[in-house]
Amino acid sequence: MNMLDMLPTGRFVGLLGIGLVLLIAYACSKHRNRIAFDVVAKGLVVQGLLAYFILCTETGSWVFAEMAAGFQKIYQFADQGASFVFGGLSNPTGPWGFIFGVKVVSGIIFFGALMSLLFHLGIVQKVVNVLAFVMRPLLGTSGPETLCAAANSMLGQTEAPLLIKNYLKDMTESEILVVMVSGMATLSGAILAVYGSLGVPMHHLLASSMMAIPGSILISKILLPETEKTMAEVVASDMKPETKNILDAISSGTIDGMSLAANVAAMLISFISIIALVNYLLGTITGMIFGCPVTLGVVFGKVFAVVAYAIGIPVAEIESAGSLLGTKLVVNEFVAYVDMVKSGLTDRSQIIMTYALCGFSNFSCIGIQIGGIGALVPSKRALLSRLGLLALLGGTLTNLLCAAIAGLFV
């Protein structure tokens, strides 16, 4: 009998995954003696309740589906400007498919203008105050970091920081990590719709995106606990806009969005190119030594087979699932989802993997965040670079935590 066949199976194997994720986060923590374990416990409870509400109740399913539809409507407004400038290239149903430089970059510019307008009108400040009032007693997080974590679940890692760009320069290292991890651990509303069209279960994509909000906060606060004075006491309404009027706000936001989009595109090109170079060199060297080329995806796939089992994937499918996790980390989640749909995994395994892959956490996104957030707050660029790998780890652990928890309910 195969030793693997002797491993326990069933829904509650996911408890092992939860424990493994928390153990890894604890082992990699920068200040273990400063971890607020009550915050971690509360975050897990909130995540579990969210999972139950979204996955096990009709009300939860309806509420979050309506929220997604609202964000999709906003993205459609961005498409209007993109279609005027780029014509048919902005339509992803054409033979050219989804063009990142058209769809995503146009969205960043539009959101730059929109968020600048909302900040000028005082709307962003009010949302920050509400979130601070609700979340501070529960998780002890400040309004700006909580707002960004929540916004990342629908707006994406490049648009969400625009909401709090006026706060970024005064945020602590721990707060900046929450901004980065929540960006890595989530997908934008528009991207969710794209993956839904590929055949990935939309209901579970939405659930994962919502569960990642408390998940990214609790993982961040384990990896880098707060050691500085936070912005928890900041009253958002006291933050006054520098723009003089509505037109000035829109113009200023558009310029910021354009700068952000250019940085994102440049970083994405360089990081993906470097990863391709590393894969070529690794494949060439291993091919000469072992007679069979090995890529980063293959290496991480083998490593993640153990993780796949821990989050609830049956033993017979852990290598296939591990390969998907490796692909997501080394390349991106788009390729991983395309492979998942064609992988032949059982329905339950596909559901669990939907959660595990539902985030931007891959190596190229370190460059996106350094370029994107760094464009908004140049004084933090060195810190962003230093926290890049830690944020990647945090985003990956958050996705795995969501998958393990979801596996308990499906």
Short description:
With 410 residues, this protein is mainly alpha-helical. Helices cover 72% and strands 0% of the residues. The longest helix has 45 residues, at 246-290.
Strand and helix map with partners:
Layout: H1 14-27, H2 37-56, H3 58-86, H4 100-120, H5 123-139, H6 143-155, H7 160-163, H8 173-184, H9 189-198, H10 202-223, H11 246-290, H12 296-310, H13 318-330, H14 333-341, H15 347-357, H16 363-376, H17 381-407
Helix pairs in contact: 1-17, 2-3, 2-10, 3-4, 3-10, 4-11, 5-6, 6-8, 6-10, 8-10, 8-17, 10-15, 10-17, 11-16, 12-13, 13-14, 13-15, 14-15, 15-17, 16-17
How would you describe the overall organization of this protein?
The protein is mostly helical. The chain has one domain. The protein has helices at residues 14-27, 37-56, 58-86, 100-120, 123-139, 143-155, 160-163, 173-184, 189-198, 202-223, 246-290, 296-310, 318-330, 333-341, 347-357, 363-376, 381-407. It is globular.
